[in-house]
Specification:
By secondary structure, this protein is an alpha+beta fold. The chain is built from 11 helices and 8 strands. Helix 9 packs antiparallel against helix 11. It is elongated and about 95 Å long.
């Protein structure tokens, strides 16, 4: 699945998603896309699955920008961080910060040192390495180099060396320093935490349906409810974790349901008193309205 998330460091919101059908799909593409009317959104969704994940991601970002959604930086997984993707984002005016794969087939730079490994081996002798840490346990050294790629253009690469591995982080914004690039990239943790909460509390990843449209609907509901809870948490005077807030809201919903049921029982008992009914003929209709409202708001009908 390909998804787009918006975060400002305080709140996370799920903006878009799509399901990519890979070459191991069990259904023939022609049969899958021709089963529904070509004018429907279902058909558009099914056609979308036939595109590659990279093109789906590019289209998704374009939709967000055309809808008026803009961000200071776009953080992406290393799988999507390819030269053609950075080129498309440059065209849209979006600055990308991402980890990139140490692959000579994907990244072949202009100049004598064409691979990431060759660039690192040359400049680690010339650059002064700085020290940093992530949490209490992970320590690393780092330095940066500005290089050029024929497709992606000029980019800044921060080479982060831990005890175990080399992590190259690319930025299409050449004006910010190394520390800012590292700090911004760390915000990917907020996104990963959002998906963890989706799985734990909102049923994401637990869909069990062989109907494609039902699967799309289920994921949409998971994202939608997550966004509502995230917004409630944002405007709250005392923000909590999404998981904690979800449990509180769930408890409040049950409490409200019990209170409404009790209130309806009281009204029905009052309605049995003939003289009260004579004085207020609308009491019975009020009870009916309350029952309808609770059904719409709470998802079930309160009955005595």
């Amino acid at each position: 699945m390909v998804s787009l998330n918006y975060s400002d460091g305080f709140s996370n919101f799920m903006l878009d998603f799509a399901i990519a059908m890979n070459q191991y799909a069990r259904v023939a593409i022609e049969d899958f896309t021709n089963k529904v009317d070509h004018r429907s959104n279902a058909h558009k969704r099914r056609i979308e699955t036939t595109k590659g994940k990279l093109q789906i991601a590019i289209d998704m970002v374009k939709r967000a920008v055309s809808s008026g959604i803009y961000a200071d930086y776009l953080l992406v997984d290393s799988w999507y961080s390819k030269p053609v993707f950075l080129q498309e984002m440059n065209t849209l005016g979006l600055r990308v910060i991402s980890r990139i794969a140490n692959s000579n087939k994907i990244w072949n730079f202009i100049g004598k040192e064409k691979s990431l490994e060759a660039i690192y081996n040359k400049y680690k002798k010339l650059k002064t390495e700085k020290l940093g840490h992530y949490g209490k346990k992970i320590k690393f050294s780092y330095f940066s180099v500005v290089v050029e790629h024929k497709t992606a253009g000029k980019v800044k690469i921060v080479f982060i060396k831990t005890k175990e591995k080399l992590i190259p982080i690319v930025s299409t914004d050449l004006t910010i320093n190394d520390e800012e690039i590292i700090e911004i990239y760390k915000r990917r943790w907020d996104i990963e935490q959002g998906y963890k909460e989706l799985r734990e509390h909102f049923g994401f990843g637990k869909e069990e349906n062989r109907i494609y449209e039902a699967l799309i609907a289920r994921i949409t509901l998971s994202f939608f409810t997550y966004n509502i809870v995230s917004y409630i948490n944002r405007i709250s005077n005392e923000p909590k974790t999404i998981g904690g807030l979800f449990k509180d809201l769930e408890c409040e919903l049950h409490t409200l349901a019990i209170a409404m049921q009790t209130f309806i029982v009281i009204l029905e008992e009052i309605a049995k008193i003939e003289d009260v009914v004579n004085r207020n003929e609308d009491l019975v209709s009020i009870i009916a309205v309350l029952q309808d409202v609770t059904q719409k708001m709470l998802g079930f009908r309160c009955e005595s």
